Amino acid sequence: MKNIYNHILKSKIENEKLLAILLDPDKIDLKNVTVLIEKINQSPATHIFIGGSLVRNNIIDDLILKIKLNCDLPIVLFPGNPSQISDQADAILFLSLISGRNPDFLIEHQVQAVPILKQTNLEVISTGYILIKSGTQTAVERVSKTKPLDRNNTEYILQTAQAGELLGNKLIYLEAGSGADYPIPKEMIKLVSQNIEIPLIVGGGIVDLQGIQKAYDSGADLVVIGTAFENDINFFN
Ligand SMILES: CC(C)=CCC/C(C)=C/CC/C(C)=C/CC/C(C)=C/COP(=O)(O)OP(=O)(O)O
Ligand SMILES: O=P(O)(O)OC[C@@H](O)CO
Ligand SMILES: [Mg+2]
Q1: Span from the CA of 162 to the centroid of ligand 3 (angstroms)
Q2: Does ligand 2 lie within 6 Å of residue 222's CB atom?
Q3: 128 labeled binding residue
Q4: Ligand 1 pocket, 109 CB below 6 A?
Q5: What are the residues whose beta carbons fall under 8 Å from the beta carbon of 45, sequence distance 6 or more?
Q6: Residue nearest to atom 5 of ligand 2 (CA)
Q7: Which positions are annotated as binding sn-glycerol 1-phosphate (predicted)?
């Protein structure tokens, strides 16, 4: 059933905050998935995101099938490129990197993804993806060969988010970058969330539970945790 976006919308209206754990197939050993899932089931996570800036191995289908055996959370693809599409997931963030000026990440990957998507039942959720400079270079900047937006230029960041909304995106994702030196600042989350209607995802560089709460308090509807859980499966204990 295609109801993942409707659930995100409803949660926003009801001020129920959402949490996604990002699993990078490149960094997962299929043998350890059972323990990982146990930890996820004990955590406050509401979604599992799957993806990486580059995914070199070929385990996405198997990984999702294994997760589904023991976990009921919705599985949402967060792809760095069209090769990361799996019919086993429930939905896909159909990302366009609107902070960058590389046509491959603005439209070409999406065009290439269409024939693959047409053969799946994935719920497609168009997402304006905005990378903000947050310390040293992160994987998205390197892989996409685009410049992140300057975090001091808040007016331009807001305009970018609003342009993403006007283009018809259903979500805006403010990204500091996986493993970023510092997360998206709370003032920026506040400014963007108060000036768009669609739900706001915030991720990158959040390393503790206070960081998650701070993002929620500032107006994030869904927070993504990747590296912190990757480094410590007891992160939520
Ligand atoms: C719509 C389709 C099929 C693809 C979209 C393609 C676009 C626009 C992607 C945006 C840019 C990008 C490379 C996103 C990757 C997002 C992601 C899962 C980042 C996490 O990166 P990690 O691989 O965890 O980085 P580290 O290796 O540094 O941890
Ligand atoms: O790995 P972290 O820093 O938690 O970032 C999560 C996600 O926003 C990266 O795309
Ligand atoms: Mg990562």
Answers
A1: 27
A2: no
A3: no
A4: yes
A5: 19, 20, 21, 73, 236
A6: 204
A7: 173-179, 204-205, 226-227
pLDDT tens for the chain, 237 residues long, are: 579 999 999 999 999 999 999 999 999 999 999 999 999 999 999 999 999 988 887 899 999 999 999 999 999 999 999 999 999 999 999 999 999 999 999 999 999 999 999 999 999 999 999 999 999 999 999 999 999 999 999 999 999 999 999 999 999 999 999 999 999 999 999 999 999 999 999 999 999 999 999 999 999 999 999 999 999 999 999
Neighbours of 171 (CB within 10 A): 24
User: Measured from the CB, is residue 227 less than 6 Å from ligand 2?
Assistant: yes
Domain boundaries, the chain: 4-231
How many Cβ atoms from other residues are within 10 Å of residue 54's Cβ? 13
Q: Ligand 1 centre and the CA of 41: distance in Å?
A: 25
229 close to ligand 1 (CB < 6 Angstrom): no
Domain boundaries 4-231, CATH class? alpha beta
203 lines ligand 2 (CB under 6 A): yes
What count of Cα atoms within 13 Å lies in the side-chain half-sphere of residue 151?
17
Q: Which residue do the tokens 């390197």 mark?
A: 142
How many other CB atoms are there within 10 angstroms of residue 66's CB atom?
Answer: 19
Rounded-to-integer distance, Cα 167 and Cα 160, Å: 10
